[in-house]
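I'm curious: can you give me some protein's one-letter sequence along with its backbone structure tokens because I've never seen that pairing?
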Amino acid sequence: MATIKIKRTNDYVNALRDYRLFIDGQKIGTIGNNQIKEFDIPIGQHSLSAKIDWCSSPDFSFETNGSDSKIILLGAIRSWRWLMPLISISIVLALLLKDVSYYIAALVLIPLLYILYYLTIGRKNFLTIEELKKH
């Protein structure tokens, strides 16, 4: 058996919801915000993915051998960190500055279209997954 360690990033967007973890299409458990979990898996070629609601990560392929241990980092797309504050600030500015509200509305529309993309067409890339290199 080999060990896979999965570390979930600290994301405020999905902080209250767990990600469902799948190896080779079989659910192996869930992981909460900023948690680290370890799983024993058989030696060989595997595929890991994570899901939240109808959105997911792309499949991440990896191979394990003997006493091998993999560390996988899992989280929301990195742009969520600045996207939600940008939308909030733009909405407040649109309410306060009525003369330039059309320009501010455009600033809100672009991030909203970005979010809409990841909730529809790009839903299989909503979560990021990558292997952390050992030092």
